[in-house]
Amino acid sequence: MSLKITPRSEDFPRWYQDVVQSGQLAENSPVRGCMVIKPHGYALWENVQAALDRRFKETGHENAYFPLFIPKSFLDREAEHVEGFAPELAIVTHGGGKELEEPLVVRPTSETIIGHTYSKWVQSHRDLPILINQWANVVRWELRPRLFLRTSEFLWQEGHTVHANEAEAEAETLQMLDIYAEIARDWLAIPVRTGLKSKLETFPGALRTYCIEALMQDGKALQMGTSHNLGQNFAKAFDIQFQDVDGARKLAWTTSWGVSTRLIGGIVMAHGDDKGIVLPPRVAPVQVVLVPIFRKDEEKIAVLAEANRIIDELKERGIRAKLDDREQLKPGPKFFEWEKKGVPLRLELGPRDLADRKVVAVRRDTGEKEALTFDGLADSMVERLDAIQAGLLQRAEESMAARTNEASSMEEFEALLKEPGGFVLAHWDGTEETELAIKEKTKATIRVLDDEVPGTCVLTGKPATRRAYFARSY
Q1: Are 255 and 231 in contact (CB under 8 A)?
Q2: I need a surface site. Which of 271, 284, 316, 427 has the fewest CB within 10 A?
Q3: 318 lies in the same domain as 414
Q4: 392: left (phi over 0), alpha (psi -120 to 50) or beta
Q5: What's the domain count of the chain?
Q6: Are 266 and 297 in the same domain?
Q7: What is the β-pairing status of strands 369-373 and 358-363?
Q8: Tell me, what's the pLDDT at 166?
Q9: Is residue 282 part of a domain?
Q10: What angle do the packed helices 297-316 and 377-402 form, to 10 degrees?
Q11: Does 251 lie in the same domain as 118?
């Protein structure tokens, strides 16, 4: 495990790589652009996954699984879709020692293979809605890989639904956007800005794309999830039709939505410090770690007996607690390791603590230490875990508020992007030409559109009907 972490102020991208690897979340694989997710990182993903999966099921969705390999002709049926994904495709041309009759695309996303399947499942209005999610891996050939943020293979969930009309499809799209925002805020302690994407940033083949956007500590935006109203484009391409109550044959409306292991990168960049990862308690694989301290065998027996009792008490309360009783490491290196891994609370228990019937509790977010009595210790842990969760969210909210500013001129726009960074709210004349010109001039893109408010475009000076949140992004 690397012991040195580059300070954020010195090199934020390097800091990020150092923290991910020294915190034992993931490492690079022999295949460029791919990663090995280590047990600590995968346990974190499992906790995020569980929170999302529970909300999906509460809103009537079911899990299923669809093939990894997709006939290339399927992508060709939707022109915008294939054009949008063409540079990222991994294509299989040989299998079993022979050239395939038709090339197969390794799943970059599943609208096409699922659209084909739904065309067989949907016959009548009684078959609707179809509300399905799948947990899977996808492959998008990445030119500039970075652990969790951009990798050629990553894990995600993708929901795919079918509806009888546009209103139902739009309601589904917005419902899932709200769920993503809820999970980000309440579980990851990351506030997000939600809204509609510009046409230039819309998912290939979609009618409308909505997303959640967060700000990282370096002032850059991170798109953490997207929800697409696909309209009838994929229904047309794959002939998803149903017989309505009036007997008429009608095209269905479809949606898709997804988040990925990029959320792990967001957690790291939103909350980490120069010591390592700082994990929100609600998703931390280990919420409380207890490190016993002793020198003599008789001290060891007594301290470990009490330490095990405390761990059992915390587990009974539903706290994810761990006893670090490794004898090959002294307490100092253990403290160092758990600090890098971002465990929210560390307990220290030695002979003197045992005699006083107390433990020393250390918060990962603030470094605050305090002695807590054995009596009511589980309650004390719950209270402090809740306080850490709330504190991380409050700090992130304050940071986003301080880095969200409005510009009325390009001079002001560029100055705000430089300092303090973050979101710059500005009028935009609604044209792709202006959007691209702003991107070329400033490297900032439209993250989400704001409400319609008449004004003057920040770049062209032409009349504008709405504003947009711009930011430099990952």
Answers
A1: no
A2: 316
A3: no
A4: alpha
A5: 3
A6: no
A7: antiparallel
A8: 98
A9: no
A10: 70
A11: yes
Instruction: Tell me whether residue 5 is in a domain.
Output: no
Location of structure tokens 């918060």: 363
Question: Which of 324, 336, 254 lies closest to 290, judged by CA?
Answer: 324
Q: Is the pTM of this model over 0.85?
A: yes
Name 426's bridge partners. 468
Tokens of residue 29, six digits: 């694989």
CA 291, distance to chain mean position in Å, is 31
Domain end, chosen from 238, 271, 304, is at: 271
Q: Which pLDDT tens digit goes with each residue over 1-58?
A: 456 899 999 999 999 999 999 999 999 999 999 999 999 999 999 999 999 999 999 9
Residue 442 sits in the same domain as residue 303 = no
Q: Find the length of the chain.
A: 474
Quote the Cα angle for 217-426-437, to 5°: 90
C-beta of residue 261 within 8 angstroms of C-beta of residue 141: no
> Is 145 strand, coil or helix?
coil
Residue 39, Cβ density class (10 Å: 0-12 exposed, 13-18 middle, ≥19 buried): exposed
Structural domain of 453 = 407-471
Name 46's Cβ contacts closer than 8 Å, sequence gap at least 6.
285
